[in-house]
Design a protein that fits this description.
The chain is an all-alpha fold and 232 residues long. It has eleven helices and no strands.
Length: 232
């Protein structure tokens, strides 16, 4: 499939996805209402944290872009469940551990790695590893490893608000449950589109264009985050 990766596809996707730059803040940003709640929160607040977690996943397009790549060529329900479970395990571990153990990582560098995960999956789906290197990395291990980095990305956002210790573990669990609910809703929509398109002859071209778009978006995310890192 990688042989179909053309310059025209790349340019088309680049100009289509350049609009993503204006949404960089939206991807991990927090609206004023949520910011005020987190800064003034005290005690256990299960429902609000579930809502914030779900909203973060639904609006966090860097996480969703990676999941699009992961699910793109999965046909069987058990494979979808396996890969999503591995991603969930990875980001849940580092989300909880990162916040509770107060592990400090640079948010820009973590988000750059998350952008790299999007590039990796698009490149892998296009057959790039087999085409250029003759071997594909273990896809399950890659999803788990990148899931760990995605979890640290979530942890850095929570740490910014220095939440009080009272009720922190319960609130984090609620946030993580919300993330999973948001992920589930997003995946339903993503899988619906992919499965419908599989029925049409244009799916192969759609696959090339979509995964080229993933790589383009990933490179832009990496560039934005590294720029933020060096400027700040």
């Amino acid at each position: 499939m990688f042989s179909k990766f053309t310059m025209s596809n790349c340019l088309m996707c680049f100009f289509t996805l350049i609009a993503l730059i204006s949404f960089e803040t939206f991807a991990h940003g927090v609206d004023d209402t949520t910011r005020n709640f987190l800064m003034n929160n005290s005690g256990v607040q299960i429902i609000p944290f579930m809502y914030i977690g779900a909203k973060h996943m639904v609006t966090g397009y860097d996480h969703l872009l990676f999941l699009v790549g992961v699910l793109f060529f999965l046909h069987r329900s058990k494979d979808v469940l396996l890969y999503v479970s591995m991603f969930t395990l990875g980001h849940s571990l580092t989300l909880m551990t990162g916040v509770l153990a107060n592990i400090q990582v640079n948010a820009y560098l973590i988000d750059a790695i998350i952008g790299l995960s999007v590039v990796y999956k698009g490149f892998d789906n296009l057959g790039g590893f087999k085409y250029y290197f003759g071997k594909q990395p273990n896809p399950k291990a890659a999803v788990l490893i990148f899931g760990l980095f995605h979890g640290f990305g979530l942890a850095t956002k929570i740490q910014e608000f220095q939440l009080p210790a009272e009720g922190l573990a319960a609130n984090l669990i609620a946030f993580n449950v919300g993330v999973e609910l948001g992920q589930f809703l997003a995946l339903m929509f993503i899988l619906l589109i992919i499965n419908v398109w599989r029925r049409y002859p244009s799916f192969n071209q759609f696959a090339v264009t979509t995964n080229t778009a993933l790589m383009s978006a990933g490179f832009m995310l990496i560039g934005l985050q590294l720029t933020g890192y060096f400027i700040n």
